[in-house]
Amino acid sequence: MFHRSATATRVMYSRNPSFAAALAALTLLLASAATGRAQDSTAGMHGHGHITVPEGALYTVADVKFMQGMIAHHAQAIHMSRLAEARGANPRILRLAIKIDQSQVAEIRIMQEWLRASGQFAPDTSSWRTMAMAGMLTEAQLAELDAATGVAFDRAFLTLMIQHHEGALQMVEDLFAAPRAGQEVDVNVFANDVVTVQTAEIGVMRQMLYELSDR
Amino acid sequence: MLLARRVFALAASLLVPALLAAQTYPTNKDPRSRLAAGRHDAEIAIQNMRLVSATPKAAVHDSARGLAFINSDLAFRGRYVYQGNFAGFTIWDVSDPAAPRIVSAVSCITSQGDPSIYGNLLFLSAEGAGNRNDCAKGGVQDPKDHMAGVRIYDVSDPANPRLVKNVQTCKGSHTHTIVPHPRDDGVIYIYVSGSQGARPETELAGCTNGTDPADETNSLYRLDVIRVPLGNPERAEVVTGARIFTGLDAAPRAAGRPARGGGRGRAAGDSTLPAPRPTGPRNCHDVTAYPAVGLLAGACGSYGLLVDISNPERPVRLDAKADTNFSLWHTAVFSNDGRKIVFTDEWGGGTSPMCQASSMMEMGGNTILSIDRERKLTQHAYFKIPAAQTAEENCVSHNGGLIPVPGRDIMVQGWYQGGVSVMEFTDPDRPQELAYFDRGSIDPPADVDVPAPPSAAEGRRSRGTIGGSWGAYYWNGYIYSSELDRGFDILELEPSEHLSKNEIEAAKLVKLEQYNPQMQPKLEWPAAFPVVRSYLDQLVRWNGLAAERTTAIAGALDAAERQTGRDRRNTLHALAREVDRDVSGAKDAERVKAMSAAIKALANATR
Is A58 in Cβ contact with B302 (below 8 Å)? Predict the structure, then answer.
């Protein structure tokens, strides 16, 4: 039942597998070191540079861009969530904000580790200030949220976080629409989790928003 | 009036009372909180059970970093355990639980590979975008090669499983659930939960992504139903889509009151936001059928659903419960009497460390709902393992099933790297943990200096390894746990103050030839002394009956057991009559009645 595909066995220097493996390992280490330096020097700067996908990899440039972009996207959600405490959000919304914070911090770690293990540049949590992804808040919307307090904050937070989450769903749709993207298992599982979790959270936020509108 | 009641019901379901007052964990004082890391040599903490065996995965399923080769769920039949894997499946012969043997390890890229067994047919959930019709690696180059749905294998020769059919579905299959035809033994249904959007029509005809849950052509907002003629599994096909989500999209609002803020009722002309998506779920993560009571519990993202499946081709939603404290309705387990449901919350998707001391208590655990006579749901307490886990341990409530102890509602479940935990929910307001098994993290803590890995292959294990128990299930005397990364664990309960020797023996009397956790079997106990003594132990433990009576009953049972034939029968009948007289004065009259019935059954079974 075991099938070997042409792609999986197509390796450079295939007549000398051990040399090929050693070379691959060396390449991986060099790539890690290089991206490690790249991360230091470009932290906080605009996004990523040229993306190279190694021969035989199951992921595509679209997968790398998705994971990099979602780090920035998540980082802004975390920034928004941390405003909730300072702005006197009601306890249930504060709890939701803490949940989003704790969830997305963990997910950023997953994305960063996938990118690093794949020899790709992994943005840090400051990247939301320089990368614009679907659903992310504009400067004006950020200012609106920052200035609101009490029930006005609650309403703004829910409305803007729903918009933000809708953007994440859009990013996943775009990922799967790209040719051969979303097939690498870690990316696939992660992208599907984003849909599952954020769809459920949108449902929860709409319910909360409905209750606010009753006040 | 009706509308007002619905609003009230919704408000009630959203305003969950502070049920967590008693729960102050997770605590890091638990022995599970500080275990040394290691893949196959991690430190172990275990209470009220013993590790019978821990067997590594087949080599063919142990050769890549990340999630590509993790184990998934389990199914049980005869002497075999079927273990899914994102890259295929493994059939274990567990005739000797101390030394389970791999009969076959089949390579077939099938994430997430959740298995079910029915007779000689093995069903596997296929969801990943890289799954192919021909099972091969390398990903989908041509969309027509993409397999998303349910694979059917013939496993009549377990050493040589044969793929007989790939049933394609529009959303793929994240999980699936078998429901037997109520009358026709030759037909089963498979309820398919797919968490993805619909595939493009160019890939599979008839698939559409829509926003209207009631639209019959919309591939979303429906539970896909496959009909399998068991004699001709190659003719299995999707026969319908059950629209059990319709009406969950719009939050009800007070009559005549325009909605404000966001949501579906947002003021017209406000074009700064994207078009709103409906509120409710468009699919379930997982559904659990309990055919004996004609019910299905749907764990569907933002809602838990109760569904009537007396006609499996036409499921009807009876009730739905939302809870803004609960992150993601993920899986459900019924109590054996069908009056309660445990729902699990997979906060963080299973890949995140959501059981840390700082993690929110009310999320990422279980909640217990009761079903009333009108078949409506009421939410009770939450439960989360009382042990803080490290940042290296992906941890959240995950899959499990009942342990057949008469008179009590007990389930065992996997918590990924939180380990295996046994929870009692007899009192839905006071769930408690009875036993556990846990290992330290696979990876060392981030602050530990890790030597440079000797090779890239080793290096993959240094950080972020996802592992732990995907699901843990009790089957014919043992607890089987599917370890994502490490392999396959078998555990056995040991007597403790929480669970007596008699209760463990009574559980072992329940034999299931075939067991799929998402198709819940009705548990029935044979007439036997351990069953009677289980009730007696429970009456003693919880002071349900006066001590002099429980002592006398214990003595009478011992005397009856020393007898045979008609003498034993007479002693037991006399005892049952005495116990019937105990009912009225007992603190726990229901349990005394159950004990009396068990004594009578034992008397009648005595030859």
Answer: no
Q: How many helices (H) and strands (E) does chain A have?
A: 7, 0
Instruction: Give the residue from chain A lying closest to B17, CA to CA.
Output: A92
In the stretch 83-112 of chain A, residues with CB closer than 8 A to chain B read 92, 95-96, 98-99, 102-103, 106-107, 109-110
Residues B107, A3: C-beta atoms closer than 8 Å = yes
Phi/psi of residue B542, nearest 5 degrees: -105, 20
Res B545 pLDDT > 90: yes
Which among B197, B261, B328 is the nearest to A155, CB-wise?
A: B261
* ipTM field: 0.86
Cα–Cα distances in angstroms (integers) from residue B203 to residues A169, B168, B172, in the given order: 21, 10, 12
The confidence band for B26, taking pLDDT boundaries of 50, 70 and 90, is: low
pLDDT bin (cut points 50, 70, 90) of residue B212 is confident
Answer positive or negative: Cα dihedral of B6, B8, B11, B15. negative
Chain B, residues 59-88, CB within 8 A of chain A, namely 60, 65-68, 86, 88
d(Cα B58, Cα B100) in Å, to the nearest integer?
12
The answer to whether the beta carbons of residues B561 and B567 sit under 8 Å apart is no
Q: Chain A: residue nearest B60 by CA?
A: A2
A187 is written with which tokens? 């990316």
Does residue A183 contact residue A59 with C-beta atoms inside 8 Å?
A: yes
Supply the pLDDT for residue B264: 31
What's the pTM? 0.88
